[in-house]
Amino acid sequence: MKKYLIILAAAVATGFATSCKDFLEPTQIDLIYNEAFWESQADAEVGVTGVYSLYRGLMSSSANWYQRADVTCGFVKNGWSGGSNRNYYTVGNYSDVSSVDRMWGSMDSACDWGPFYKVVAQANLVITKILAMDVEKFSSQEAYDRLLGEAYFLRALTYFNILRVWGDAPLVTEAIESSSQVIDKDHSPLLIGRSTDFEIASQVLDDAEKAVSLLDYGTYGTATWAIRANKGSALELFAHANMWANFLARRDRLPNPLGYVKNAITALEDLRDHGGYSYVDYRNADAVKAMFNGQSPEAVFELYVGTENNESYRADRSGVQAFTCKMTPLDNDPTHDRSAGIDWIPYSQKSKLYPEYDFATGGPDIRPNLFFGAWDSTYNEPFNETQGSSTNDRTKVTWLTKWAQLTEDTERKQESYIAYFAECNIPVFRYTDAMLLLAEAYYKNGEEEKALPIVNDIRHRAGLADYAGNDIISEIMQQRISELFGEGYLYYDFVRNNFWPNAHLMGAVKYRQKGYYWPVSSNVLATNTMIDQTPYWNGKCNW
């Protein structure tokens, strides 16, 4: 069967899911919604599926998770002929007005929040319509609650992304059902300015709390485990949002910042005690592989990707695999394995990822060789097969293997020597993240004695002894790095804790001026005069 990228198929099928232009870039539009559509549980299911599809389409671009949250940490470099844009991880030159190397200020398209707000618009519509429906139209109260809870979860998750990337941003929760909502009687666009990051965080907390109250826990092994939101997914999002709110409250000296930490602890203890999650055994390489494939006992929330249901993409062209994975050439020519065109780990960064790994013995930490290929390589410069190069051995390119599960495209063109579909779900929340976040919350709540056992559980699974140091928060952060690199967490962890293994990427002045937030694109600024540039990036962008 021919396989297509159909990530947005459900959204297209509904009609309304893709008919709404971005209302934060107003044009004279006429939005038509058929009231007769929202008459049954099946209609509501289609609406919620549309939100999932739009969000999954957004995250099928690794720029929205892997590049923003992992490449930005400075642990990787791009390859000789490809990989991630180096502006993600190199300090910009802002003194030369003609310089094109301005870090994120050189990346206009990555600074456009429009695609995120398309997901928000769909979620707003679905929430509004389901709230207006009679419960009697559903098979049960539980079915009504589940669909409404999923919609609240997805809106909260999308705004959480917006919050961590841009900070201050427009806050819209009203469904756009008429052109009069975006265009006034004089046919002028109604513009929306930026709410504060704390106001966005408060909205995320409100939506996530509603999702927690409406959703039930899932059951491991069922078809929807981790790929449809459940109470565990909502609790982990609620906990993350509370820890971010704690960071904001401490930064701005707002009342009771510790209250957010306590909320996170309550949520994560509930998830731990009642969610049915468990750690995957790292001594079993097949279990580790299955974990990254998806729907493992550790999976709290993921976005489904797989050729079995014709919902994949060509991994050699897009997605995280296009930037991270070597692939077996279908023409049996080893020079086509993509060694020169992917992100790789320099030797100089490896001690920051796994400080207790001994290159002489290959241990005791087993994770480097579970999560990476060619970890023992000492290359500090990219692979270069040019004659005379000192880095011309393609077997010594250290690359991330977490997402390297692929299926050959059997209907490829004959000249396509690399043609594979992706088979790994897109990660959002994992149990290991939840437990390390709980350890962080315990530490910040003055309960180090509760944090330490979590850290030691993580260490034992990796083949390490108990932690014997006296800086528990640094060890928590180290275990987050060692466990979660390449899964879309780390940069936000570093912002939340002002913890920078590559300190040159975030000086004290930049951090104080909120330079951890991204600039706003030229498109947004040109179409909405209510939006100002992110203050740190004024004068630092190429637009």
SSE blueprint:
Layout: H1 9-14, H2 41-59, H3 66-69, H4 114-132, H5 141-166, H6 197-214, H7 231-252, H8 257-274, H9 285-293, E1 299-303, H10 319-324, H11 347-353, H12 367-371, E2 372-373, E3 399-400, E4 406-408, E5 420-422, E6 426-430, H13 431-444, H14 448-461, H15 472-484, H16 490-497, H17 508-512, H18 522-527
Antiparallel strand pairs: 1-6, 2-3, 4-5
Gist of the model:
The chain is mainly alpha-helical and 543 residues long. Helix content is 40%, strand content 4%.
Main β-sheet: number of strands, strand sense, barrel status? 2 strands, antiparallel
By secondary-structure content and strand pairing, the structural class works out as mainly alpha
Order of helices and strands: HHHHHHHHHEHHHEEEEEHHHHHH
Unreliably modeled segments: 1-32
Report Rg: 23 Å
Q: What is the rounded distance between the termini?
A: 46 Å
Number of strands: 6
Please list the strands of the largest sheet in the order they lie side by side: 1-6
Q: Count the helices. How many?
A: 18
Mean of pLDDT: 92
Helix content: 40-55%
Looking at the structure, what is the overall shape? globular
Tell me the strand percentage band: under 5%
Write up what this structure looks like:
The radius of gyration is 23 Å and the shape is globular. The chain contains 18 helices and six strands. By secondary structure, it is mainly alpha-helical. The model is unreliable at 1-32 (pLDDT under 50). Strands 1-6 form a two-stranded antiparallel sheet. It has helices at 9-14, 41-59, 66-69, 114-132, 141-166, 197-214, 231-252, 257-274, 285-293, 319-324, 347-353, 367-371, 431-444, 448-461, 472-484, 490-497, 508-512, 522-527; strands at residues 299-303, 372-373, 399-400, 406-408, 420-422, 426-430. The longest helix is centred in the first third of the chain and has 26 residues, at 141-166.
